[in-house]
Request: fold
Amino acid sequence: MFTALYPGSFDPVTVGHMDIIRRASVLFGRVIVGVLHNPQKPGGALSADERVSLVRAAAQSLGNVSADAFCGLLADAVQTCGAQVVLRGIRGAADLESELTMARLNRQLCGVETLS
Reply:
């Protein structure tokens, strides 16, 4: 059973986020939506707790999906939750290069594969 971590700000969770979450819930035994909480970065429409609550409500019918806030490096969150896969959405061509760089770095740091 593979565990997938889907990290992001989810401020707020969108239809596009939920599409990825629903599709991932079919492919993986466990999907954790990791809501990024960065106390050094003020702003945003919703608090981390509000964003976690909204994700949980939106995914309540998906029995293998959970949501939790995390702070710090993605590599640390991967190790804490035991994920073997990181899920990332790509909005366009501009996202692709930075996502590929992050995927290589996370593979080197903690051996996790990234699906974009």
Residues 93-110 form the longest helix (18 residues). The helical segments are 15-27, 48-58, 74-81, 93-110. The chain has one domain: 3-115.
